[in-house]
């Protein structure tokens, strides 16, 4: 992986340490939108590492995911080893042609569409999708948190359907959004694919687990591309338990909202203008972004800069009081 | 997953229990070629479930795999979440056209080539590959254990290269074959892709880990299809440790060879003619195959039948003395 990609994606403290070799340890990783309070991983039976994942266990996982995400049925849920791995596969389900990718957005969307052979065009509004055969967007959007209304997305899906097109909605951060925005319940129509990420909200990104929610004709094609053993035994076991743990899910939503408010207050105190975000990350816009990125890096705090907008910085949530304190101290020292 | 696929692949005791509801428990699973003496899974740090896999850790895994498999360098090793998931991706690296798939062989090979848009033709000899743009075979072959000589494969690769074609060699069971047969050292030429399975030899199929070994131009395309976080944190940690454990690897080869010899002796005692296999599975051919499959199933022993050859049964290795004893008792009672 090149240096570009290291800066481009978050989550790689190796890159942080190369860039800021003198920074105090431990490095605080605020470069991702991953929940810093992970779901407590239950003891994984040795057997789950050893044997091939059983179809019945995959089905139980799909059932738990359908319930948690509001999919019409478990038959519309395809478990996959991370949503990012499924992007080029779903991009191939649209007829080759123009792909509209909402921008600013998640870099992997355009990359996946190009990989699938589409002519990729960045568009900034749903109305600009024109005659694209494939539209990919994140809802809520990353990094600015923009939300697309269900009615607008359903209208876009209907429009795409008339010309055999496909709408891919990456709901990687939908877990922390108030109910009613997800299109998971609306996937029966046939040309809408909703992607859900397990690792971000549950704080278990290393597990590699995600879901494609789609009507059976598309869902079967996605499943076929992965073959019979897409997801690891540990991911199936941990995922099934966590997605069924409604109490933990509710409490975590509250906890993340509170943490995001705390972060907002801290950024506001320093007069860093908030552009948007979700409860898993906050985006600020300032001409001092690059200087602040350097300053925080030297203080051992790794945040996310954006090649496409030099004035942006994205902050994930600190995971403990020591991290909050170091962030506050570093921010205060900047001005 | 349909009933067909359940019988088609091994490893699903759910299917066994539906077919033989009265069988004594525990069911003994001899339907796969997975080592029944798994590598002892070390305690996986909670952090590896939580954070995104770090590029440096993926690199360490590739290095360990390059050493274990004899690849020219770690730059030629792409870690993937199971070899079966990589098959349609490598099949797409050949120009569209005829794909020759060695038969009898592993069903996923033909499925992957068809998924990638090739016209799939089953061929029984290397000489019959004709003008195919893609050739996929397993070496040693599954289920009959047939070995293809390196010189023949290199000649085929050279022939394919002249017309821009690609040779995919699935070495899923190469770990238990005497050294010198693998084409992993010969991948620098540019159009040979060697696939290695981690789960079978190390007995950790639930971990979902495999490797594509290919020259950088092809390897980069494979890596790009998976994106930056192909393999889970636990798979990276366990895989790196296991692939570096040369003592365990050597001892396991010996242990599996002895177990295979013990199984051969048992089958020979019952006059079941051995067709071939590897030290991870043995294939017998008998007109009584179907009756024996039923008889063993009713005794709680799940072996592998083949839709393409009604006279074949494949036996994996029993994992403990109780299983050996039950197998022997059931076999003796059959005649």
Task: Give the N-to-C terminal Cα separation of chain A.
Answer: 35 Å
**Sheet with most strands: strand arrangement of chain A:** 2-8-7-6-5-3-4
- Strand portion of chain A, in percent? 15-25%
Count, helices of chain A: 12
Structural class of chain A: alpha/beta
Largest interface: A-B, 58 and 57 residues
> What does the main sheet of chain A amount to?
7 strands, mixed
What does the radius of gyration of chain A come to?
Answer: 20 Å
Runs of chain A with pLDDT <50, length 5+? 1-7
Regarding quaternary structure, what we see is: homodimer
Would you report the number of β strands of chain A? 13
Share of helical residues of chain A: 40-55%
Please state the average pLDDT score of chain A: 94
Order of helices and strands of chain A: HHEHHEHEHEEHEEEHHHEEHEEEH
Structural shape of chain A:
globular
